[in-house]
Amino acid sequence: MALALFPLLISFLFLLPVSSLAQTAGNITVGASLSAVENSSWISPSGDFAFGFHQLEHNKDLFLLAIWYNKIPEKTIVWYANGDKPAPRGSKLHLTSDQGLVLNSPHGEQLWNTSQTINGGVVDSGVMDDSGNFLLIGSNSIVWESFKNPTDTMLPSQKLDKEVALSSRRSETNFAKGRFRMVLKSDGNLVLTTINFPSDYLNEPYFESKTSAGDSDLSSPGSQVVFNESGYLFVLRENNERFRLTPTITGSTKDFYYRVTLDFDGMLVLYSYPKIR
Ligand SMILES: *[C@@H]1O[C@H](CO)[C@@H](O)[C@H](O)[C@H]1NC(C)=O
Ligand SMILES: *[C@@H]1O[C@H](CO)[C@@H](O)[C@H](O)[C@H]1NC(C)=O
Ligand SMILES: *[C@@H]1O[C@H](CO)[C@@H](O)[C@H](O)[C@H]1NC(C)=O
Ligand SMILES: *[C@@H]1O[C@H](CO)[C@@H](O)[C@H](O)[C@H]1NC(C)=O
């Protein structure tokens, strides 16, 4: 019955797909860089995802460092770094061994970096993989990944731990942080809620999964939000039971690209788009 109240829509977008060419094989070594100019990106081996600079619509001299679905003709951004600080034309992204990814403006101002999350580790390479995850690898382990630092979107195979929030953007084309959050709280309850600017204080939720330990003597608390390989979004409980958030879908992830996005109006939406064969 919770499903009836849940503000989640399935939206099928059938636009004419065109193909595009893969330029690199997804593996990027330390020392590599990208400039904030048109068409500057690193592409996953299959060509499905690109990581690079997206030119903002309202100002052609500002760029967003982002990941997008590279074969969907309508630019579909699934992750972004500097939503609150767009990069002026000519800014540079460097892959460094000590700070991982570093984005500098042409005047040398640092706009964004991954150094805090890397936490003293050493980076050997970066990988734009075919699931849409950008990873930094050091000493054969993952030191940073975009899947663990989400913005407004989840992709199939992505999992969110407790207290890791999705944040809506300000508007369709403004990538600054907006008013809505989706977060699995420490008690295991998944909430959709607004925040009070400029603080990050969460208001009363407008949706909750009621999967905290306290909601029933019998229930096991939520431990992760999972968007699985088949395109199903659910709260995984500690006892491995699932609280499903999305309805049954008919298309396979072999034939469709899926994403779940917390839209700028606060709606959590499952989108699909047919792949080109
Ligand atoms: C990326 O390339 C480097 C150098 O060619 C190699 O040592 C490393 O193993 C590769 N990493 C991955 C994840 O393929
Ligand atoms: C960027 O790519 C698009 C599509 O391939 C092309 O039409 C455009 O001319 C390119 N722009 C630049 C500056 O290379
Ligand atoms: C990296 O970014 C953080 C903010 O996320 C900032 O506090 C820090 O100064 C930056 N690091 C460097 C070396 O500029
Ligand atoms: C994803 O979850 C759905 C619903 O629980 C399940 O039917 C499906 O088998 C799962 N897919 C994978 C790849 O685990």
TrEMBL record:
**Signal peptide positions on this chain:** 1-22
Which UniProt keyword terms apply here?
A: Disulfide bond, Glycoprotein, Signal
Record domain Bulb-type lectin: where = 27-149
Say which domain of life the source belongs to.
Eukaryota
Name of the protein described by the UniProt record: Bulb-type lectin domain-containing protein
Q: Which organism is it from?
A: Corchorus olitorius
